[in-house]
UniProtKB/TrEMBL annotation:
Domain VOC: 8-126
Highest rank taxon of the organism: Bacteria
Organism placement in taxonomy: Bacteria, Pseudomonadati, Pseudomonadota, Betaproteobacteria, Burkholderiales
Protein's recorded name: VOC family protein
InterPro entries membership: Fosfomycin_Res_Enzymes (IPR051332), Glyas_Bleomycin-R_OHBP_Dase (IPR029068), Glyas_Fos-R_dOase_dom (IPR004360), VOC_core (IPR037523)
PANTHER family associated with the record: GLYOXALASE_BLEOMYCIN RESISTANCE PROTEIN_DIOXYGENASE, LYASE, PUTATIVE-RELATED-RELATED
Entry-linked Gene3D superfamilies: 2,3-Dihydroxybiphenyl 1,2-Dioxygenase, domain 1
Annotated organism of origin: Polaromonas aquatica
Residue ranges crossing the lipid bilayer per the database entry: none
Length: 178
């Protein structure tokens, strides 16, 4: 049997009741810094990291109901390339898993879907660019990878926050070491 492309668990998403308190907690306790934040589907979302190689290791979304037991919003796995992501997109589609949603975040290309028990999974590949998050556009992963790269660069290069991933990563590294 051929093994699938390598996919590494990289971050966790949590639904939270008090986003500001949770941001302060993870910042104070673990030294994480906010890498981005904004509005998402009528709520707030904040991305945090302690590693300049990862845009976020923790993502928190407001709006968790008081009676909800599990705060986990998703498990996210990084793959090495856009082509690996395209492999997973085809595989997930063949498996018939629910809620398959390819997304272009500018700084990454992702697929979101539900496992057989309804847990949200994200598999993503990083792009060479950075743009403020949240940023989400539809993505056609059936297009050739080079076309997706060119379209993504054209899409995000006009954004005021646009920069290379390397430039963004250096700045985050400086913030983390200071």
């Amino acid at each position: 049997m051929t093994r699938p492309p390598d996919a590494q668990l990289t971050h966790l998403g949590l639904y939270v009741r008090d986003l500001d308190a949770m941001v302060a907690f993870y910042g104070d306790l673990l030294g994480m810094v906010v890498t981005d934040s904004g509005e998402l589907r009528g709520g707030r979302i904040t991305f945090m990291s302690r590693n300049a190689n990862e845009h976020h290791q923790l993502v928190m979304v407001s709006g968790r109901p008081d009676d909800e037991y599990s705060p986990v919003s998703q498990m996210s796995f990084r793959v090495k390339s856009l082509e690996d992501l395209q492999y997973y997109n085809r595989t997930v589609a063949k498996m018939g898993l629910r809620d398959l949603r390819p997304s272009n975040h500018g700084n990454a290309w992702s697929i979101y879907f539900l496992d057989p028990e309804g847990n949200r999974i994200e598999i993503y590949a990083g792009s060479p660019w950075y743009v403020n998050q949240p940023y989400q556009q539809p993505l056609d992963l059936d297009a050739p990878a080079d076309e997706i790269r060119a379209n993504t660069k054209a899409m995000v290069s006009g954004d005021a926050s646009f920069q290379s991933h390397e430039t963004w990563q250096r700045a985050l590294s400086e913030r983390l070491s200071g």
